[in-house]
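Many groups now describe folds with learned vocabularies. In that spirit, our science desk offers one protein's residues alongside their backbone shape tokens.
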Amino acid sequence: MKLKLLSPSSKVWTPRHWLSCALPFTIFILILLFYLTGEKRQDELTGCGFTAQLCVPERSLTSQEEPGQKSGEIHCLGPDKLPGQMVRPFKESLATEGDLQMPQFLNGWRKLVMLLDPLGTLFTFATQEASEKISTLKSYSRGPHSNHYQTFSAMAEWEQDPFKYKSGLQTLVLLHRALHWAQLCLDGIARVHNADMGVLCGDAYQRVLGPFHPWLIRKAASLAFLAFPRRSKLLAVVCPGANEQEAQEALAQASDMLEAVYNRTQGLLAERGILTHGVTMLPTGGR
């Protein structure tokens, strides 16, 4: 009996062979799509071309004061600046003690998306998810039952089953988690000196959002955090035209407002047991 040897070019492709080749290719495609999805939205919002992580506006951090700026006023929190435009509706969402005004909350989120998008594709990835949830809640607030979606309390009373598919409350929980990650990351950029921002924001991602994302997404995010921009560049994008200290102060105040909104929402969700079906996140107080 003769045994016929296969030539080197005649490989037998077992399932293991296919898996060993397909998995790296899948990760590569995922990362490629991950970066490309941010290109179009970055161009629309900032007018910058595609970059791997960061789109820095033409004006960087300076100490120049713009015409009409009041002495002592934080440059970036003015009514014509994006951080200020974000802080105001979030503050208004807390106007009623023990409740959350939904239209103002969603307006604040819309500005937060605009603020985060130019910071890089990692933020774009998170804000694309958030934008879908914002659109869902806005459609409820403008639909036939809009009067039930003006405040958190009204929404909670209206929705008998908060865990039904795409209910308002469950959609709010998803925005709540994303807000937590954005607040932790922005707070680190504002207050933590001499630290790797990629490590800081990456740890916050793995703790807050990672448990709810597929394994491939988590791994792709981990790789992208390795190329995270330096702190000074992030501050330049958040607060263009201001010096670094002023940018830090503005971002710290913005982070404090996000924390207040997060903690109010956390308490409201916890009171109704809505967080018991997922990972319960504690208030962020106490740095």
Remarks:
- The chain has one domain: 26-53+75-277.
- The mean pLDDT is 75.
- Residues 26-53+75-277 form a domain with the Glycolipid transfer protein, GLTP fold (CATH 1.10.3520.10).
